[in-house]
Each structure stands twice: as structure tokens, then as C-alpha cells.
Design goal:
With 281 residues, this protein is mainly α. 65% of the residues lie in helices and 0% in strands.
């Protein structure tokens, strides 16, 4: 029996499944790994402001751009969770699946602070003055995520500076549309439990908690919301410590009080009623 020589993989593929179909598609569109991921644009999106270039400014830009990509993904997932719950009982399983993904991404956000902390305060100060008046406070996607999760605060629209008309429109839309909390309350009501006010809703959630045989899906979703809230709080806490480590008590580049402002946000909860429920069980 003669030895068989392994066939060389076709040059035009970069995935290991469905090679024939992928190759055919690429012949029509000339799709490549780089063009599919828009790498030319992506890798040309890091432009340093420092002159001469500060070594760690590239790290600073990259980490924050990656945060914005993850915020985009979280908005995509949380919006899908909300829509699945609004669609009724048949999509609750999908909402629970996506919430698991949300939790994993949020853990990545917390851990990503470690990368930024490889930069020393001295290295950051080499280019920090170039950032003003830009500020993380201006992250529209982060604020969208808070609004969509349930922490709607119209006051932020008055404090935002430097955002575009399109960004303002997105924030207005998030304030007006149902939040994750709104559709969760709707799901409780759909189970025949009263939700007329906070006291009634709390009583209904106590019923859910003590009868998981009947209301197991609702309780699992309530716990998924609490974990979403907890991980958001963990990121805020990790972030403020990092800021204190980098700039101490200095004001933020956007004019905020810096770490003092960030510490004032540590008690924010998306779902205070679910936390208070622990005391009523």
C-alpha cells in the first residue's frame, strides 16, 4: 500500500469547516480574513496625540477602544434579552442564554483593568494633559447600557458635552424605550402575579422565590439581573481604584472631580428592589 500525501489546504480559506462553501463565496466576493474583519481600518484607528509619542498612549487608546467594542456587544445582547422577554414565554430560554453571555463579557471588562494598570502613573502623565477635555464620562454606549439595564437618569443629558446630534438621539431613544427591568416586571405580571407598585411587586417576587417549582424561570431571570448588576458594580469599583492609583485626587480631564465623582457612583444599583428583596425573604 502506497503512502498517501496529505492534500494542501486551499489558500483561499481561513476556517476549518465548510471549506468548499467558504472558498466558493470568496471567489465571488474575494473575502479574506483581513477584509472580513476590516483590519486595515481597525488597526489604523489608534492615533496618538502626544508629541513626541508617549510609549503607553497606544495601550491607553487600545484598551478604551476594546471597551467600546465590548459595550457595543453588551448593548446587542441586552437589547436582545429585552426583546426576547417582551415576546413572551416562548423566548425566556433565549433571554437566559444571552444573560449568561452578558455575565461572561462583564467579567472580561473587570479583568481588563489589569492591562491598563501595567501603565505607571508617571507614564500616564506623559500624555494625560493631551486628553482634555475628552473624558470617559462621554462614553455614550456606557450610558446607553445603564439606561437599557434600568438605571434611567435624564439628568445625564444635561451634563453631556461634546456629543453629536446622533449620539444625543440614541440616548433619548434609550430613555424612552422599555428597559430590561420593565420587561422583567411584565414577565412577572404575565405569570398572573400583581405588580401594581413596589410593595405589591416585592410580595409577588417573594412568592416567586418561595415557589421555584412553579416560577423557576422567573427566579432564574431575577438572579441573572442581580448578577448583571453585581458585575457592573464590580467594574465601577475596580475602575475607581485604578483611577486613584493613576491620578490620585486630581480632577478628571473632562472637568469632573475624578475619583471623587466615580466613588459617588459606587452605590448605583440597576435593580434596587431585587436587592431589597433579600431582606424580605
Amino acid at each position: 500500500m502506497s503512502a498517501m500525501t496529505p492534500a494542501e489546504p486551499p489558500d483561499e480559506t481561513f476556517v476549518s469547516f465548510g471549506e468548499e462553501a467558504v472558498a466558493e463565496g470568496q471567489r465571488e466576493r474575494q473575502l479574506t480574513y483581513g477584509s472580513y474583519l476590516r483590519l486595515e481600518d481597525l488597526l489604523d484607528a489608534q492615533h496618538l496625540e502626544s508629541d513626541p509619542p508617549a510609549h503607553d498612549e497606544l495601550l491607553f487608546i487600545t484598551v478604551h477602544q476594546v471597551y467600546e467594542l465590548w459595550f457595543q456587544q453588551l448593548l446587542h445582547e441586552v437589547e436582545a434579552v429585552r426583546d426576547a422577554l417582551a415576546a413572551g414565554e416562548g423566548r425566556v430560554w433565549w433571554a437566559r442564554h444571552l444573560m449568561n453571555r452578558v455575565h461572561v463579557v462583564e467579567r472580561v471588562l473587570v479583568q481588563q483593568v489589569d492591562v491598563l494598570e501595567t501603565m505607571t502613573p508617571q507614564d500616564f502623565l506623559e500624555f494625560r494633559q493631551r486628553l482634555a477635555p475628552a473624558s470617559g464620562f462621554q462614553s455614550v454606549q456606557f450610558r446607553e447600557l445603564e439606561f437599557l439595564s434600568g438605571a434611567k437618569d435624564p439628568g445625564y443629558l444635561k451634563r453631556f458635552r461634546g456629543i453629536t446630534a446622533a449620539e444625543r438621539s440614541r440616548l433619548d431613544r434609550r430613555l424612552a424605550e422599555p428597559s430590561l427591568w420593565d420587561v422583567f416586571v411584565g414577565l412577572v405580571a404575565a405569570r398572573g402575579l400583581p405588580v401594581d407598585d413596589d410593595a405589591t411587586l416585592t410580595a409577588s417576587l417573594r412568592t416567586v422565590a418561595h415557589d421555584r417549582g412553579t416560577h423557576g424561570e422567573v427566579w432564574a431571570l431575577a438572579e441573572a439581573l442581580v448578577l448583571h448588576d453585581e458585575l457592573a458594580a464590580a467594574w465601577r469599583a475596580r475602575h475607581v481604584v485604578m483611577v486613584e492609583r493613576m491620578i490620585g485626587s486630581r480632577s478628571g480631564t473632562g472637568g469632573s472631580t475624578g475619583a471623587t465623582y466615580l466613588r459617588s457612583r459606587l452605590d448605583l444599583k440597576y435593580y434596587p428592589l431585587l436587592w431589597e428583596l433579600r431582606s424580605a425573604l
